[in-house]
What does this fold into?
Amino acid sequence: MTVTRDQFEIRDELTVFHRPSGMEISTYRYKDPSQISDLTIRDASPGTRKPSPEEEHEIHQAARELLRELQAKPR
It folds into this structure.
């Protein structure tokens, strides 16, 4: 699976939703967005295919980068 940005729905600067997997991924607000490391993952929605461990890692990495960018934007 190749994870792309267009697969994510932005809920707010702390939460994104990966449509293909049904995973909601969020983090805390960080003073320095480049330090984002902790993610909270809500498992796949019913009716979606569970990603493999490798796919999950790729989804988490893409979400983390997107969340860093969202938090770095001036409010």
Remarks:
- Residues 22 and 47 are 9 Å apart (CA to CA).
- Helices lie at 53-72.
- The first helix runs from residue 53 to 72.
- The two ends are 33 Å apart (CA to CA).
